[in-house]
Amino acid sequence: MATGAIRGGKVTKTAAAWRAAIARALRRIGAAIVLLLLAAGLALWWAARWTPDRALYPTQGVTIDAGNGDVHWGSIKAAGAEFAYIAATDGSSGIDPKFSRNMTEAREAGVQAGAIHRYSLCQLATDQAANFIRHVPRRADMLPAVVWLDYDDRCPDRPTRALLLSELATFLAQIEAHMGKQSLIAPGPAFESDYKVTRGIARTTWLRRDFFEPDYGAHPWAMWQANDYVRLSGARGTVGWNVLRPRGEMR
């Protein structure tokens, strides 16, 4: 009986020690999770507010689309946006439902604005140009149009580089005749890596990379979308924040 009692006591003490060790481990894991959540929250808070130094890039602006809801352009200007690029058309038939309103209200607030066309690899250049010309008016006070070049899950086509460059040149010629000024091209990193558009199309470039200057074009960027996570009181969700390269600077 005595031996059994001793063994039972040892088992009880061992179980208690294991429970205590597990409890300590769980507390440490919980503390680590809390710290990770705090760090993630701080990172998101910082990302939503970070914009490049105005001493380096004095001219800054936003990218806006229908996802930003009813934009309060006075607040956008007060946040430091001197210009805006506004989503306009998409492929051969898409139109951003807020485009016309955003263009009008941006001008009324004193924010110079330009239109963005999202180019589709699945549709003819002439059809896309007709869509752009139908919905984007020619105005002397508008910024040059931007052709947004990126892959789209809705479009599986991957034309040859020669065909893409030929179609893109046709599209640019038609919309530039309508607007009366040259456009910008804005290829994403993966798109540029595959098609090397900036080597084949002689246009001013708008490149994209969050928080760090982009270096993937064939020549220096003129405009940089530096943060796609900025939150402003005048718009729903996040906006893209852009900077212009200072004149004469080739960094």
Give an account of the 3D structure.
The protein is of the alpha/beta class. The chain has helices at 2-47, 73-78, 99-108, 125-135, 161-179, 189-195, 197-200; strands at 60-64, 83-90, 94-95, 112-118, 146-149, 184-187, 204-208, 223-230, 239-244. It folds into two domains: 1-47; 54-244, TIM Barrel. Strand 1, helix 2 and strand 2 (83-90) form a beta-alpha-beta unit. It contains seven helices and nine strands. The N and C termini lie far apart (87 Å). Helix 4 (125-135) packs parallel to helix 5 (161-179). An eight-stranded mixed barrel has the order 1-2-4-5-6-7-8-9.
**Unreliable runs, pLDDT <50, ≥5 residues?**
none
State mean pLDDT (0 to 100 scale).
Answer: 89
Helix/strand/pairing category = alpha/beta
Please state the overall shape, judged from the principal axes of the Cα atoms. Answer: elongated
Task: Work out the count of structural domains.
Answer: 2
CATH top level assignment of the largest domain: Alpha Beta
Q: Would you count the extended β strands for me?
A: 9
Q: Strand portion, in percent?
A: 15-25%
User: H/E series, N to C?
Assistant: HEHEEHEHEHEHHEEE
Quaternary form: single chain
Distance between the termini: 87 Å
What do we call the CATH homologous superfamily of the largest domain?
Answer: Glycosidases
Number of helices: 7
How large is the radius of gyration? 27 Å
CATH topology of the largest domain: TIM Barrel
